[in-house]
Input
Amino acid sequence: MKAKAFSFIKISDRSMVASVNVARYIRDQLDVPLTDNDEVADGAMDVLIIINGAYGFCGHLPALGEAVQKAKRIVWVQQDYSIVPPINNGKAESPFRKAFVIRREKKKSHLEFWTTCAKESIATPLSSYINWNCLPMRTMAEKPYTVHDDLAYYGSFRNGREKDFDTLFTNPQVPVIISSPSGKFEEKYHQHNVTHVGPLNDGNLIEWLSERGLGLYLEDRKSHTEFHSPPNRFYEMLSAGLPMIFPADSVFTIRQAGYAILDRHIFELKSGLPKIMWQNIKQKMDNRNVIAQEQNLAWFKKALDEKEQLPAVMKRAWKKLEDSL
Output
């Protein structure tokens, strides 16, 4: 079976971008050529694997559109539901999006999904649920306990979480530390008790997390009601031995994924009751070593098993495609 994989984000062995990590993993596990440029259109192919990304900024859309038209099957690799896959019945203008409309006119199949999202994993008979988000999981926790009395949050300034950010970071009653490539956090939350640091690379992320007091788990509203794999951050904080705390409305995904969150790991994130919220968080800070031990004992082996089973899961998904051609 002739196949090729394409990444919208430039491939680098040092990149920490989640989609690049997934792209490299697919390349290595399936032994398929991986490209991030016009080479995607070279030669015939049975299967084109596209790793989702912000394709509006990609400079190789004409070549990718050509490859889309050539391929017999197209796999959309999805580890973030917020990046919407291309449709095949719209008024497309870009050569990439228009290629899917042309495929439909030629009665070719649209997309198969290898996805962390339950809904898309059953979109077609050839689609599969694959938990790409467990890839950052380490084989051993960095440290069993934390050393600083701070509440840590890291990542981009994610749309849909602003209300939670305002509640937690406007007037925090415990030291808060935020690591982000976005300047919006420092622009909005420069209050006393909030420290900002830049983005962390793969070499020191886990060590930095292992020194924090508590890890703050937040998710988008959509994840409250629709199942998606636990995010990369869940596995990164678990690998660091960092105890995590969860807003009450953010436990659906984790529990449905098979991770039992205890009531003492949960707090009520309510802007109207800040005193009670911060009392609860302070109590968890005092008991963070116990929480770390509980989460490590209950979750670590399961998370590591998920990562170790990924090659077999991918091979089953790959076999379905082979059998369909």
In short: The domain at 3-130 is CATH 3.40.50 (Rossmann fold). The two ends are 9 Å apart (CA to CA). The mean pLDDT is 91.
